[in-house]
Every structure is written in C-alpha cells, then in structure tokens.
Amino acid sequence: MPKIHVIRADGSARDIDTPAGTSVMQAVTAAGEAGIVAECGGSAMCATCHVYVDERWAARLPAPLPNELEMLECTASERGPTSRLSCQIKVSAELDGLVVRLPERQQ
Ligand code: FES
C-alpha cells in the first residue's frame, strides 16, 4: 500500500498508509490529523485541505484543473508555488512516498 509522508506545521512528521485511489485529504483526515479541515468534503469548493507538495514531487502530480486553481486563491495560509488542494490528489502506486507539508492554518 502506498505511504504518504506528512509534515505538520510544527515540523513533526508521520507516514500514513494510503490505499490507492484515496485522496491525500481522505487519508490524512482518516488518520486523525487536525491539519486538514476539508469543510466541503472533497469537492474543491473550500480550500481548507490546502497542502504544500514537496518540490521533488510537485511535477509528478497531474496539473490542477481550473476549479482547483481558482480555490487556491482562497487559502488561509499563504499559497506557495507547490500549493495544492489535497482532496484533488489521488494516491497511486506511483505516488508511494509522496511528501506533503500541512500549512499553519486552514481557516
Ligand atoms: S476538501 Fe474542500 S477543497 Fe478540498
């Protein structure tokens, strides 16, 4: 099963087993992490699932769709060059080891 490496805003980190086909948002919230709110439940309509994807991984993700790009304008923590909505990142075997950093705040 793919693992994702999640770095919290305070710098602590953990690996989370993530079944293929699951979104990063679903995996992180199911693991009990507080750093993702996911108010809209994964519909790309809230931006409270914002993450910073590690630079080494960012280019390996499918490009964001226009609705994701639009919502990334509304993040509570500053948007960065590798910012993504975690609900729009589906984990696959190719993404085993994906590294994401949680922002300081989501609201
Ligand atoms: S959960 Fe709302 S945009 Fe991702």
Overview of the molecule:
- By secondary structure, the chain is of the alpha+beta class.
- The protein has one domain (3-101): Roll (Ubiquitin-like (UB roll)).
- It has helices spanning 24-30, 55-58, 66-71; strands spanning 3-7, 13-17, 50-53, 83-85, 98-101.
- A 5-stranded mixed sheet has the order 2-1-5-3-4.
- The mean pLDDT is 97.
- The chain binds FE2/S2 (inorganic) cluster (FES).
- FE2/S2 (inorganic) cluster binds at residues 25, 38-40, 42-49, 71, 85, 87.
Bound molecules: FE2/S2 (inorganic) cluster
CATH architecture: Roll
Query: Largest sheet, described in full?
Result: 5 strands, mixed
Shape: globular
What is the total number of structural domains? 1
Helical segment count: 3
User: What fold name goes in the CATH topology slot?
Assistant: Ubiquitin-like (UB roll)
Strand content: 15-25%
What structural class do you assign from the helix and strand content? Answer: alpha+beta
Say how many strands there are: 5
Strand order of the largest sheet: 2-1-5-3-4
Question: How far from one another are the termini?
Answer: 31 Å
Pick out the low-confidence regions: none
Spatial extent as radius of gyration? 12 Å
Helical amount: 10-25%
Q: What is the structure about, briefly put?
A:
With 107 residues, the chain is an alpha+beta fold. It has a single domain, classed as Beta-grasp domain (Ubiquitin-like (UB roll)).
Comma- or semicolon-separated keywords:
single chain; 107 residues; alpha+beta; Ubiquitin-like (UB roll); 5-stranded mixed sheet; globular; binds FE2/S2 (inorganic) cluster
